[in-house]
Amino acid sequence: MSILIDQNSRIIIQGINGKAGSFFAKRMHDYGNNVVGGIAPSHGGEWTLNGKIPLFDTVHECVQSTDADTTVIFVPAYSAADACFEALESGIKNIICISADVPMKDIAIIKSSLQNKNAILIGPNALGVFTPGKALAGVFPVDFAIEGNLGVISRAGSLCYDVLMELYKNDIGISSVIGLGEDCLSGTSFVDCLDLFEMDAHTDSILIIGQPGYIQESLAATHILESITKPVYAYVAGAGINTNKIIGHTEICMFDSQHNAPRKIEDLSNAGVRIARNLKDISQLINGR
């Protein structure tokens, strides 16, 4: 069993002719995924990746021809909402939006539209979904992950890669990993993913990778206490951030003094979650050392 995607998923790429879209489409295809089409307006009827993937003008045309159920979106931020709506109206079940810097107003509108639809949105600014040995829908590196029984949910970006590498070096296998995206507002929450892993027969324990800003980790703590029976581990980055000094382009939500890392760590710990204080601690906690 897998979370959201498996070897039978029929994946399309919106924005496949862009630099990022073409690069990661090739990676997903090479991993063995069933990438059944790409969306490239004005290029319908053509093929890409040396004739391996057909192109369509619209998602609707692609779904009619291929029965696609999952899309991975690589379009500019200003058109990400339109891409999500097009996928939603075409009957796509899993919408994975990699696009970054999508306005929060657009995200809020998309989330509202999802309420009456049988669909799930991962992102925006997401890493996607990766089930080692079965399927990849996103931008995860595939070289350092092995199949196993640990479910991983991450709000962090590249930090998630470091965690996966640490798990790989210690022979800890993964059932699935979901990269929700670093934005304060996202389509899917920790709570949603916790329920998915709780129901997954191939997941024995769950790892949360959090960061400062917004309330997802605190909401997850309450949900874990009330509804999750499997062991949960957590690593929350940013405990040493000085909330009075904003550095560079870092998300302003990370400096929310009400939802800082120490408070989230306290909430999760009070819910019975075992806390890793650094990367090395993660594998030691999971291995019971």
What does this structure look like?
The protein has helices at 19-30, 59-66, 77-89, 104-114, 158-169, 190-199, 216-227, 261-270, 279-286; strands at 10-14, 34-39, 47-48, 53-56, 70-73, 94-97, 120-122, 128-131, 135-138, 147-154, 174-179, 205-210, 232-236, 274-275. The protein is an alpha/beta fold. The protein has a seven-stranded mixed β-sheet, sandwiched between helices. A seven-stranded mixed β-sheet has the order 9-8-11-10-12-13-14, sandwiched between helices. Helix 3 runs parallel beside helix 4, helix 6 runs parallel beside helix 7 and helix 7 (216-227) packs parallel to helix 8 (261-270). The two termini are 29 Å apart.
Which properties best describe this structure?
Rossmann fold; alpha/beta; 9 helices; 289 residues; globular
Structure summary:
33% of the residues lie in helices and 22% in strands. It has 289 residues and is of the alpha/beta class.
Largest sheet: number of strands, sense, barrel closure: 7 strands, mixed
Structural class: alpha/beta
Taken from the alpha-carbon principal axes, the silhouette is globular
Strand order across the largest sheet: 3-4-2-1-5-6-7
- Assigned CATH superfamily of the largest domain: Succinyl-CoA synthetase domains
Query: How many beta-strand runs?
Result: 14
What's the architecture of the largest domain, going by CATH?
3-Layer(aba) Sandwich
Average pLDDT for all residues: 92
The percent range for helix content is 25-40%
Radius of gyration: 19 Å
Through-space gap between termini: 29 Å
SS summary, helix count: 9
H and E order: EHEEEHEHEHEEEEHEHEHEHEH
Low-confidence stretches: none
Task: Tell me the β content.
Answer: 15-25%
CATH topology of the largest domain: the name is Rossmann fold
